[in-house]
Task: structure prediction
Amino acid sequence: MAAGNWYSSSGIGDANITVSARSIAVALSDSIKNQEAVAHPVFQSMLARDQGLGQLLGALGIGMSFATLGTGKLAATAEGTEATPTNFSTANIVVTPARKAFARQVSDFARSLQDGLLVGEISPTTEALLAYEGTRIWQNSLVDGIVALAASATHEIGTTGTALTWSAINNGVYDLKDRGAATSRALALVSAKGAKDLAADALSLGGAVQMAAQTQGFIASAQSGAYVGTFNGIDVYLNSELDADGGDTLGILITDGALLSKHQQVVLPMEAQALINAGFFTMEARRPGGGVSIVETVSYNGFAIAEAGRFAAIRYAT
Amino acid sequence: MAIPGSSAPNLMVPALAGPSLGSGPLPLPGQRDPWTYMVSPTKLRSYKGVILPALAKAWHTPGLHGNGRDWGRGEGYQSNMMQLGFVAVPHVMDCVAFGAPRVNPEVSAYLDRYQGVAQGRAVTYYSDAWHRPRRIGHLVAWDFDEAGWMAFLAQCLKLVTPGELDPVQVEIATLPLISAIRAAQDRSDERGKRTVTELLGHLPPEHTPDDLAALRPATTPAPRKR
Result:
């Protein structure tokens, strides 16, 4: 099980020196769950707003101001008296995209020998393999950046050092509603431990909760991927990128508008050997010499909590 | 721009003498960037009978939550947290992890850096100093110095609350727990009783309402082992 660059005698090139016929397929990894998270409407909404903001032009980042409007009240003001204007107030967020990269190295000889061995998602060429991987890597980075924000969330659901409970989530949703943020789609990412805690608690509660239709979603399905179920209006997914804090795990609960992301689309120049331009990321092939290609996946992006009231960390004992 | 009180260690310099764990690359959970802990006088919780701060992490990752495009010390992230009343915990301070003082730390008083592999690729993983990897065969277990961690949290609290806790701070730390206990009391089964006992173990005895104090066993068991 060698690891390294893809040469004819190392890395996944080991397929060439086997004693029997062999294929090359994508290995199962728990990072596959990130694909489902990114496909959720809350993530898609964030990315749509990201693109709606357009390209950076002469600036290194973008700003978003949230103006406090509609919160005031009329005050009794006598006739002949001019009301004093109230200042606008804003909360400002800045996102500065940073360059992030990941590279693979593939030798011509390995490619020549082994392109035909590729099967599944990555067939029929090395380029397909690398494009598939580039997409996964960009998704992993996206989810990793978002869940990292839980470590500084203003609002938290759950109790440190204790298992996650149904009532903690229920109370968290009430708090979300109280902040005025429960008006759209909601997504929660928790670890398998968190989901098991929740399921064990809800399924043993008795009464209305235990018998509620949504609670039956806690009866795990082996055919629904990372999706656990929809509880209290939250689409709950398993995820493995979650951060740890002390002895706790930090899941996230996000609704539309909770996050701000910005990707700068960087079109590769004409002299570059562009493999993929997927907008959110590009893949470029370079040949520094020796019959070897380096394929670099690059994304220029940044993330921030846009509005703290739409975001909560879900804390429970690891 | 240097982070106030954190000028000494350079978090981006490769570790020269990090914790050694024998032969072969160390399996790690994945890539994890460094951070600066932030503490607030109003973000508090009760844990094992003690009121402690809920630290936030201001990641140093470029592009994240106000950070610039280049590696720094999370200045943008910290700035956002400071607007919420948080104060940076300096990377140089006298603290103890696993019984050893964190004097002249390689990375930071409260961070360690590990080089290893995750899913076949080389990664750098920053961990707080109170978690330490230990090899068991082909597995890696992470030991947790909980007492040291709690002492560190208490030190952090002193940065923003040098004296006695204000009653409002006590309320912030205990009220959610008391609510959770009362919710668990509504369950009539054994699970409910276990939850009450577990949560009571976190509530400081001196701030436990009388009706809940009566529920405490003569010796409250420690919260369920994680």
Summary: Confidence is low (pLDDT under 50) at residues 1-6, 13-21 of chain B.
